[in-house]
Amino acid sequence: MTDVRKTQGVAPLMTMNAYENALRQFDEAVRVMGLTENQVAMIREPRKIIELKLTVRMDDGSIQVFQAFRVQHSLMRGPAKGGVRFHQDVTRDEVKALAFWMTIKCAVVDIPFGGGKGGIVVDPSKLSLGELEALSRRYFAELGTDVGPEQDIPAPDVNTNPQIMAWFMDTYSMHQRRHAPGVVTGKPLELGGSEGRTQATAQGMVYTLEEAIRHLGMEQDGTTIAIQGFGNAGSNAALLLSEKGMKIVAISDVTGAYRNDTGIDVGTAVEWTKANGGRLIGFHESGAAEPMEDPMALLELDVDVLIPAALENQITARNANNVKAKIIAECANGPVTPEADEILNGKGVFIIPDILCNAGGVTVSYFEWVQNRAAYYWTEERVLEELDRIMRKSFQDVLAASLKYDVPMRVAAFVVAMERVTKTAELRGLYA
Ligand code: NAD
Asked: What is the best residue among 4, 84, 201, 306 to mutate for testing ligand 1's pocket, by most ligand atoms within 8 Å of CB?
């Protein structure tokens, strides 16, 4: 069994209150759309915030108590959908913000889900595998019937992975006394996971980037690209884009940054990380690139496209003015702060916002749920075909709103999403 403690190394560095950021973005879209107070009241606040104290017996016999959350921001368009994060810095507000963004993201790509998110305050690297399983199962057992294929469908997020989804699914199925794979997505293939899920986020980003390049009248062949983060999203992005003839001139991870202006051989970089515990550390020794003294300088390179695929709040008021890329494709969630957003918009940088750009992940999660319900499994080819259609259409929907209201793509994505959520709210009306 894989050691699930050695999973994703992303720390949520929310230097600002993420929920306030989400509300600022929402309020800007409300202003553009001219929504009424009643319409806003129907969709602004989360529907349900569950706060739990999880008691877990540790290997040494002691009992430890872990704080945990599940936020269901909206159930208007379908069951809540969103990942569960295991991290020592998880806060209630962070989970509320991430749940809010899931409502928006699912509506942008027009899949029949609301938004949700979960989190446990824990540093999973400090737990044994057995303790991690006990904690995961306790969380899902406590959530009880608040989760379910028709209620709320969690998925992996920072520091959670397919093995943890398997424990979630098993715990729920035991309680329900039935096989219920549709309660979570991001499961191992053997338990009803979907083909194509691993590269889905990067693949979705590639479709939106191709649309952006076309819209801006740029040449795709030889486009230069810098990528921050070389985990699931970043490394798959590098592989897919280099296969398309684009030139990856810089890559980085938490251990350092590397550049090669003639283009990095991405296959060599992926092999390097496989041999080095998933990290790029010492990659220059392969001869495929030079080390960069200041890894943050990657964000300021003179490239056509910048792809943040690591952390929140990387492009801030401090470095936004130095960004030279024409396009920023946000693979990561929240890599650009609201202040930096303003600066970049002023400079005419075309941003493909996270809620559109990285929505390929949740879209293939939707396909996984559909396949679980039908108990019929698609080929990878079919998954990619459907993803291609949804991502390109979503990009065009957002672009059309951006042109119609004369607003940046991020505000436009909120507008598209909120038009859909508001319409559903009107049609459903209020029960009692
Ligand atoms: P991951 O853990 O697989 O990879 C994260 C990468 O970021 C690692 O290479 C890590 O070393 C690097 N990193 C961490 N700190 C860094 C730093 N200071 N400078 C440079 N690199 C640093 O995570 P992932 O799944 O690839 O997710 C990356 C981002 O994409 C996150 O913001 C996540 O929320 C977002 N995202 C991922 C998915 C998905 O399906 N994987 C879906 C939607 C959004």
From this structure: 201
